[in-house]
Amino acid sequence: MAESGSSGRFSSSLTGSTLPPPRTRIFKIIVIGDSGVGKTCLTYRFCAGKFPEKTEATIGVDFRERLVEIDGEKIKIQLWDTAGQERFRKSMVQHYYRNVHAVVFVYDVTNAASFRSLPAWIEECKQHALGTEVPRILVGNKCDLQDSIQVSTDTAQQFADTHSMPLFETSAKNPNRNSDHVEAIFMTVAHKLKSQKPLVLSQPTTCGCF
Amino acid sequence: MCSDPVDIETLKRAAGTKGGLLTDEVRRKVWPKLLNINVYKLPHKPGRAVRKNHKDYNQVVLDVSRSMKRFPKGMPAADRGALQEQLIDIILEVLKCNPQLHYYQGYHDVTVSLLLVVGERMAIAMLDKLSNYHLRDFMDPTMDSTKHILNYLMPILEQVDSELHDFMIRAEVGTIFALSWLITWFGHVLSDFKHTLRLYDFFLSSHPLMPIYLAATIVLHREKEVKQAECDMAMVHHLLSRIPQDLPYELLICQAQDLFDQYPPSLLAKQAALQSHKRMVKMAVWGLSATLGAAAFAVAQTAMDWGPEVLLQLF
């Protein structure tokens, strides 16, 4: 252990030979919000192209990724799907806030409580140094359930404006998957990230050496 | 099994050896005995009142209603629905009787495994016992104790395969990939219920930290795959958190037992404590809450090694 372990965490910058092929930039996006708002559904829908038949409670964090092409550049989008229950985020999920490039906040349009929790989630992010300087977007999920909407688009838009975030309303269960906006949501984030300075975007573990 | 008093050691050995307790019929008889449950004095079925004004009601309903995968394929929807209602009642009843315990997502995965084998009233008795012993640390107000238990994983790996250990440290993968394994006794991640049951036989007859030793054997079993992966948090987390469904459970159970004997918790306690920053307090919290004799004793011993002043500060 002594010889190889002594270099510890800093040695990750030396593992160049095991990195992905050059020029595949990775955008790491964390998806957060209350339990049951549909975070797993959204991330699955984006990465697998369809919505899952049944999802279960996420315990800890789950990870999904998809390779996309933006303006001729191949980019890997990594989505970190987190547990909604408060006890997990307090001591478990912190590790996964590191090196995050963007944040997607999700609430359920049929559950006013999940909307009221948003300030707490925003605060949570600020504590992990993810404030207004990183792209953040707000997603109101389950808008297919028209009859039980509790959070109006106006209310949500006002909130989004106050916090300088774009708002999307979507349904990860929309049968017509071309009109569910899920694609647009994550691609908007990816475009925004791509238009920023490249150095900021390279994962710190790779020393920004591309 | 019919002897009185019952020979727990023999039952424990049977649960740990090849094939475990084999059938649900045997499990129904042995599981309660392993937890020292009085089968003549089972709790009553909870009434409707248990659902009223319960702080965890919404979260429990949400998790249970999404737990369809845990029920046998082909079970009629009505039967499953009835069991899900029982599941909600069982969980809320145990939480109501133990106000010091806090619900966590995954508790429902443990409960469903018990319910499907032993039925509602025995499941309440077993869950109550497990919650106060094996699962106790996961049910604190925070997950700090759980995090501490996860800290045992890396020291075990380091003992057996330092190269693998160092690779995982370099990748900064953390231990959250094993979180659901630990707190649901693998019930959340295994799709074949017979494997879950086999592991439950093993864990019910073992030290509360045994799930961490099994987690270590699974990582060690996949050592080649891991080392070939990109040395990156996301990649390694992704690889490890997706558990292969065809694992050689009998072999892994033997290996976990061997690891436990070779590197008992008392030996690893200090290294585990060093993994976290607030080590003293966390160690002590764990020592006080892991109520199975040997565990608490081992930790107390370790704490005593550091001197009684450490312990005194806590009271």
From TrEMBL, chain A:
Q: What is its main location?
A: membrane
Query: What membrane topology does the annotation report for this chain?
Result: Lipid-anchor
| Keywords of this entry | GTP-binding, Hydrolase, Lipoprotein, Membrane, Methylation, Nucleotide-binding, Prenylation
Q: Which GO terms describe its molecular function?
A: G protein activity; GTP binding
- SMART domains found in the cross-reference section: RAB, RAN, RAS, RHO
Subcellular locations according to the entry: Endomembrane system
Read off the InterPro entries from this record. P-loop_NTPase, Rab33A/B, Small_GTP-bd, Small_GTPase
Record-linked Pfam families: Ras
Which family does the entry's similarity section mention? Belongs to the small GTPase superfamily. Rab family.
Q: Which NCBIfam families match?
A: small_GTP
Q: What is this protein called?
A: small monomeric GTPase
Recall the taxonomic lineage recorded for the source organism: Eukaryota, Metazoa, Chordata, Craniata, Vertebrata
From TrEMBL, chain B:
Q: Where in the cell is it found?
A: Membrane
Q: Where are the transmembrane segments?
A: 173-190, 202-220, 284-304
Q: Which UniProt keywords apply?
A: GTPase activation, Membrane, Transmembrane, Transmembrane helix
- Tell me the domain of life: Eukaryota
Q: Name one GO molecular function term.
A: GTPase activator activity
- Gene Ontology biological-process annotations: endoplasmic reticulum to Golgi vesicle-mediated transport; Golgi organization; vesicle organization
- Identify the residues that the record assigns to the Rab-GAP TBC domain, covering every copy: 21-207
CC annotations in GO:
endoplasmic reticulum membrane
Q: Report the main location listed first in the record.
A: membrane
The record describes its membrane topology as: Multi-pass membrane protein
Q: What is this protein called?
A: TBC1 domain family member 20
Species source reads Mola mola
